[in-house]
Amino acid sequence: MDVDDLILISVDDHLIEPPDLFLNHLDAKYQDQAPKLVRTDEGNDVWKFGEIVMETAALNAVAGRPKEEYGLEPQSLDEVRPGCYDVDERVMDMNAGGVLASMNFPSFPTFTARVFASDDPDLSLALVRAYNDFTIDEWCGAHPGRFIPMAVPVIWDVEQTAAEVRRCAEKGCHSLSFTENPAALGYPSFHSDYWDPLWQACVDTATVLSVHLGSSGRLSIPAVDSPPDVMITLQPMNIQSAAADLLWSRVLKTYPDLRIALSEGGNGWVPYFLDRVDRTYEMHRAWTQQDFGGRLPSEVFREHFLTCFISDPIGVEMRDHIGVDNMCWEADYPHSDSMWPTAPEELHAVFVANDVPDDEIAKMTYENAMRWYSFDPFAHVAKSEATVGALRRQAAGHDVSIMSRSTRVRTADEKLEGFRSRARRAMAAQA
Amino acid sequence: MDVDDLILISVDDHLIEPPDLFLNHLDAKYQDQAPKLVRTDEGNDVWKFGEIVMETAALNAVAGRPKEEYGLEPQSLDEVRPGCYDVDERVMDMNAGGVLASMNFPSFPTFTARVFASDDPDLSLALVRAYNDFTIDEWCGAHPGRFIPMAVPVIWDVEQTAAEVRRCAEKGCHSLSFTENPAALGYPSFHSDYWDPLWQACVDTATVLSVHLGSSGRLSIPAVDSPPDVMITLQPMNIQSAAADLLWSRVLKTYPDLRIALSEGGNGWVPYFLDRVDRTYEMHRAWTQQDFGGRLPSEVFREHFLTCFISDPIGVEMRDHIGVDNMCWEADYPHSDSMWPTAPEELHAVFVANDVPDDEIAKMTYENAMRWYSFDPFAHVAKSEATVGALRRQAAGHDVSIMSRSTRVRTADEKLEGFRSRARRAMAAQA
Fold first, then answer.
1. What percent of chain A is helix, strand and coil (3-state, nearest 5)?
2. What is the mean pLDDT of residues A283-306?
3. Chain B within 8 Å of A332 (Cβ-Cβ)?
4. Which of A25, A146, A236, A377 has its CA 20 to 30 A from that of B192?
5. What does the pLDDT look like over B236-258, one tens digit per residue?
6. In this structure, are residues B325 and B6 in contact, taking their beta carbons and an 8 Å threshold?
7. How does DSSP assign B212-267, residue by residue?
């Protein structure tokens, strides 16, 4: 298959929230209290909610920049591509990158929107609902067929979360951003029955629990002075932890129709993981009393988990050990792991190197995403107009040149110090 | 290659310390203060050192038991095979299991012997030295060519550790049991220059840093109520963390001859790990300022790290992505992951299934172990007498029947509760 003939749905991208996020969706009485985007004296854009200041306005949104300008420090909207926060610009960037459709995770509210928690539960619930109405109705609604809608939970209240899942499903949303580890955030663990109303709502509405890497709030670094490369290398570790925690829990046994996506979790670790869970089962089930009704845990994994990868040559090579029906491509726009706008070429090279047949490519690049997320872009976009080649033709003239419009390019030393101070704060918060 | 023709050196087994551990190696003035093995009213054997009681006398030493009798609760020496603590019995068990030679990690003192720390530094140092003299001179010395000697560190004092490495190397010991993460134990991290005298001593004496899974003291469980299967599945996670922490540290750049074994760490995760470190390097080195002198981090990994596996079909299948010069077989006797006495058959089946040529089998089963650990069993045992078949002939008549001599077989419920109370204590200690 030629790279121009690929059809790409990305199941993991990121929305950098625009300043008018709450304008059209929050009751007038709450507008003053809603989080506001403000610029600090240092020139960073931060969200303020009451006394809370969230620095990560545009965390790591480096798509289009030269590698010398990568870094994790906060930035302002002036320093990122408009496609980060403007939906029309985003669709142009998607066209230029050959991406038919995209699912977007939240940024400043965190993956579980837990920053909306406050002393006023009515305000907090209103913020969650307004956020979901913005993303589903305004962002995704602006370009039908181009976005897989995703909701955020009312993480501090399971009954309200279940109700929100049902409310959003009626608007066509079948994805909920959730955490790898509720216990790490101070809520009941996956082993509690506390979450049962949510699991039931997900099953009733065919809503996928989309669990993004990093959503436990735990940092995967061995020591506070570990270099940033260690954290970048180890990021997928927490998602393996979530996969194990859910796989061995009562949740999948009680809710056999529940589906979970391991967003940005990669694929290459899965074959070893499945080997380990089957061996653990074989060796220890007599005393741990696990019972999957005659099936192996690896079979149960394939019924419940979607794995998401950017290019991941090892995972593609080992796809028969994972299951080609369980693998979905993702772009990770606008983060540094994204190869925008040349991701199709990178992915295509991995398919070619591993002799992947066309039917398997189709599963991994769009068919699995459509099935798992109950999403049909072709109701709005003709298949012939959905390919990498066709989309790029629509983007003719769109500026994809390397963009370095910031006047505030930091030195490598400043970036390293930015990482270190963040690591110190995170480790202190964990201790 | 026939299973009888395999030659097996195991680079990871475990000593369950005998009651007379310190008898022949500790100055008379310290004998009263040394740790003592005592039996509790409940029938458990525990080591007492001052006010400290260590319950893990025979943790998980279930070799030879039916799976129904597996569990993690403490046991007494009456409940384990004599080969756990008696060197002549151990050699008979090794013969029966077809194992030519074995390297043994400590049990009750922990992997770093940090339980020997006390208010009296002279006593503490004397205990470390006595422990090493016991294992090197008495245990390994009893059967030349059958054991790779390994020392424990004076973990609370780097200069004393360096001196102990040099002292033990003069006795032919080229392995030091160390921790995955000194920072997690309250010592300076791998990124500090505190450990430099130790790295220098290891390089000067060709001593391998043998870093065993679990040696950070951190438990890999997402929540206190996660079932035991989650912990068993995730055990290799901390060792990946150690590999990343050391690979990106200044240590390997400053000490290019330092060698590290990832004991019981498995192999199947390595291909994805190496892909991730190379991609991290390619994408981020401009700001993280990593510099391996023109080489890729995956190349640096292969120069420094030995990976250790029990059977691990995924790792064997992917051996070209790992490096067959970096893979060593291990048995893990007497723990539950060990397949004693049928490990050779299990390993052989994995080699057959993956069409592994004889020269690669030889590397993984004994040649790599000999080279990395400067160990030559053939100075003492003729090669023709070193094969699985030849050793088993020597063990004719040795009782390898399933042994269940305990009168205290616990119910599965008791075992689960034992796990849960240990998890609660460990999580409380981490918090």
1. 45, 10, 45
2. 94
3. no
4. A236
5. 778 999 999 999 999 999 999 99
6. no
7. ETTTTS----SSTT--HHHHHHHTTHHHHHHHHHHHTSSHHHH-TT--EEEET--S
Q: Which chain B residue has the Cα nearest residue A60?
A: B284
Q: Which residues contact A424 (CB under 8 A, 6 or more apart)?
A: A224
**Residue A229 near residue B280 (C-beta atoms within 8 A):** yes
- Kindly determine whether residue A70 and residue B226, on different chains, have CB atoms separated by under 8 Å: no
Of residues B319, B333, B275, B308, the one with CA closest to residue B209 = B308
pLDDT at B353 (0 to 100): 97
Q: Is A288 on the interface with B (CB under 8 A)?
A: yes
- B281 CB neighbours in chain A (<8 A) are 229
Confidence of residue B347 (pLDDT cuts 50, 70, 90): very high
Q: What integer best gives the mean pLDDT of chain B?
A: 92
Structure tokens at A1: 């298959």
Q: Distances from the Cα of A397 to the Cαs of A86, A93, A96, A333, A394, in angstroms? A: 18, 11, 9, 20, 9
Facing residues of B177 across strands? B210
Is B288 an 8 Å CB contact of chain A? Answer: yes
Q: Which residue has the tokens 């320093």?
A: A79
B330: phi then psi, degrees, rounded to nearest 5: -145, 160
Give just the sign of the alpha carbon dihedral B135, B137, B141, B142: negative
CB contact under 8 A, B286 and A68: yes
B57 falls in which pLDDT band (50, 70, 90)? very low
User: Are the beta carbons of A283 and B244 separated by less than 8 Å?
Assistant: no
pLDDT at site A101: 98
DSSP H or E stretch at residue B53: strand B52-54
Question: Measured on CA atoms in the order A55, A56, A62, A67, is the torsion positive or negative?
Answer: positive
Give me the total of CB pairs closer than 8 Å, taking one residue from chain A and one from chain B. Answer: 208
Confidence (pLDDT) at A322: 98
Kindly state whether B67 is in contact with chain A, defined as any CB-CB distance less than 8 angstroms. yes
Q: How many residues does chain B have?
A: 431
Q: Is the ipTM above a cut-off of 0.90?
A: yes
- Cβ contact, residue pair B288, A183, below 8 Å: no
Closest in A70, A216, A266 to B284, CB measured: A70
**Between B15 and A423, whose confidence is greater?**
B15
d(CA A97, CA A94): 5
C-alpha to C-alpha distance for A135 and A151, rounded to whole angstroms = 8
CA distance A206 to chain B (A): 26
| Interface contact flag, A227 B236, Cβ < 8 Å | no
Residue A325 pLDDT exceeds 60: yes
Nearest CA to A427 among A156, A249, A171, A220?
A220
